[in-house]
Amino acid sequence: MTAGGVGIAPGVGAGQTSQLQVQCAMALQQLHGWLRTVVPQSPQLAEAVPMTVQAVRLYRSGQFEACLAQIQTVIAQIGRLGQQNRPSP
Description:
It contains 3 helices and no strands. By secondary structure, the chain is mainly alpha-helical. It has one domain. The protein is elongated. The N terminus is likely disordered.
């Protein structure tokens, strides 16, 4: 998937875009795997799923900076929900 300049802030170069894209992809994969493992034992953490879906939407639309910010928000929410072993960004 390429960004094609969609939703990328002015002044962000192609190399930086692909780096952000890779960071987002890796963080989303890690977050997904972590949620799949933890939610069955801690159902209250399912509250983080809709916010994670929003991060995926941002990723798919090429808004990688916003995607990373959303992932940070999800991780903070997981902490507020009482999970001490939350995924690292």
